[in-house]
Amino acid sequence: MFNFYIPTRLIFGAGALNKLNKWATLGKKALITVSNGKSTKANGYLDRTVAELEKAGVKWALFDEIEPNPLKSTVERGALAARENGCDFIVALGGGSVMDASKAIATMATNDGDLWDYVCGGTGKGMPIDKDPLPMIAITTTAGTGSEVDEYGVITNPETHEKIGFGGDLRLFPKVAIVDPELMTTVPPKFTAYQGFDALFHSTETYICKGANEMSDMVSSTAIKNIGANLANAVKDGKDIKARTAVAWANTMSGYAMVIGGCTSEHSLEHAMSAYHQQLPHGAGLIMISLAYYKHFIDAHVCDDRFVDMAKWLGKSDATKAEDFLTALADLQKDCGVYGLKMSEYGITPEEFGALADNARSAMGGLFARDRADLSKEDCVRIYERSYA
């Protein structure tokens, strides 16, 4: 049994940004949210977005302060900007961090209190969202999170060292998602790889989770196959629009997979790492722990046939045993130049592993419930230990 409801209108394909003016009908003034980096402006994507809004007769204001692994305080400033500028919808232009933060901004622009009042898990109060969030258009410039088609955003509270998925409210689905692979051709190789593996793990986790079903299997398998066949090419030649389109498609399919099925504790374990180490890219953290993480479940023989499936989809056509998935995964990491990433380069030490395990289980413990076998604190520490370098 599954429940499929994803109400976001998807505009997909090269040149899709040029269609924004047709769909910018959510209000009279937009808050355009972008990262605090330079790429969106330098590559002309912001100017193109503004031109499309103006073509539609929409006024706009800009909030350009969103950092990687977005912070609660940034969300608060963004919500204030939306209110002070009289914005009645949001246009999120950027990667996963921008889209995630924008969902929280949309919520706090219309609701009172503190963001953590509405967070479920950890120290969040789990209150229902009272007033409708501002509607949102998501324009993704990366292929990693699938946030353009889901109702969640991951926000960090540095005071409590919690990095938690905020949302789950159907009103937080973007009204429109624009996925234009041409906007991804300028992403540097390293980040193309990090983001691509994030998308991959959304689908591999979904495929082996307890909630896997016919629909999630369909989209997960499509994502895994497309990443296996195309991510290395996108990393090696960022201008390869065929490869970029395939990886972008996989990313959006992985977004669907998370909504229909759901991620597992791998994401909880990484969120703890980057909650304490803000500069760690989420995808890089996932890569660091992935081989040890999946080996744990392969050793537990929770779904050997599904690991064989995934090994074949990643390109190991002769796979016959679950362990072949580890070989295929390592080969893809090598092909993309991200094999053997080191925790130590981001300041992570073995002395932290117990605290990280506790954090993962408390802040995002809900994902552990989707694992096919129980993952204890000791198991979490062991995965960190086996991943450490």
Spell out the key features of this protein.
8 strands; 389 residues; single chain
3D architecture notes:
This protein is an alpha/beta fold and 389 residues long. It is 47% helix and 12% strand. It has 14 helices and 8 strands. It has helices at residues 20-23, 39-42, 45-55, 72-84, 96-108, 189-208, 214-236, 241-260, 265-276, 282-299, 304-313, 324-335, 353-363, 377-387, and strands at residues 9-12, 29-35, 59-66, 89-94, 136-140, 152-157, 162-167, 176-179. The protein has a 6-stranded parallel β-sheet with strand order 1-8-5-4-2-3, with helices on both faces. A two-stranded antiparallel sheet has the order 6-7. The longest helix is centred in the middle third of the chain and has 23 residues, at 214-236.
